[in-house]
Task: inverse folding
């Protein structure tokens, strides 16, 4: 099992550009999450999907959209990137919401 | 919503000593408290977790204690080793919302 995978690993964008971060899991998990990690701020939830077909906002959803494409895949889209979105983005999944979350390797995004 | 405070932000110990990291939470309905370890440039990985119906849990050199009345929980690492050096995050799952809220992290340095 690959676990949770994310693409790309690194990305540099100019202000105003758009991009989609991809996440996939092969553990048959129901719940998936997107976090951002900034120095000294811990992990903050952007959006989550408790089960296939549902998505909900987390702590910091502004400037982002998500799509739960199927049970395996959960993508995060930045429509118009801003320097404040420079961060490391982690995708995670769990069997259900109250179970252990498994994290992907992360995507380091820089917006200039 | 849930708020999680974590202390200290940095901790330096000598190899073989014990390390204690403390977290407090605000939502009395919170019922799940995991601890994650993140090595430099890597993904967070679960090291131990505890649910609200248990007061203490141990796994070899690692233990977590939970005081529901005071709304705090702690990570205890005994006989620390250099490979324990990492950033440790506590988290709490809010009872009403169901999402994990993370503390800001503790950077543990174990000096040989």
Result:
């Amino acid at each position: 099992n690959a676990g949770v995978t994310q693409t790309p690993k690194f990305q540099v964008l100019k202000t105003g550009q758009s991009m989609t971060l991809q996440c996939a899991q092969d553990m048959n998990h129901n719940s998936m999450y997107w976090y951002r990690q900034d120095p000294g701020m811990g992990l903050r939830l952007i959006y989550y999907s408790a089960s296939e077909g549902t998505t909900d906002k987390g702590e910091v959803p502004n400037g982002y959209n998500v799509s739960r494409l199927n049970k395996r895949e959960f993508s995060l889209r930045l429509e118009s990137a801003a320097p404040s979105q420079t961060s490391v983005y982690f995708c995670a999944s769990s069997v259900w919401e109250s179970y252990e979350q498994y994290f992907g390797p992360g995507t380091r995004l820089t917006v200039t | 919503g849930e708020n999680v405070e974590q202390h200290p932000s940095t901790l330096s110990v000598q190899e073989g000593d014990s390390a204690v990291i403390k977290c407090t939470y605000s939502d009395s309905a919170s019922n799940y408290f995991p601890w994650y370890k993140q090595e430099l440039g890597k993904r967070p990985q679960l090291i131990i977790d505890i649910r609200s119906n248990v007061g203490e849990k141990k796994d070899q050199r690692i233990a977590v204690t939970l005081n529901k009345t005071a709304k705090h929980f702690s990570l205890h690492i005994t006989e620390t080793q250099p490979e324990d050096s990492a950033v440790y995050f506590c988290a709490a799952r809010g009872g009403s919302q169901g999402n994990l809220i993370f503390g800001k992290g503790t950077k543990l340095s174990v000096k040989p």
In short: Chain B has a mean pLDDT of 93.
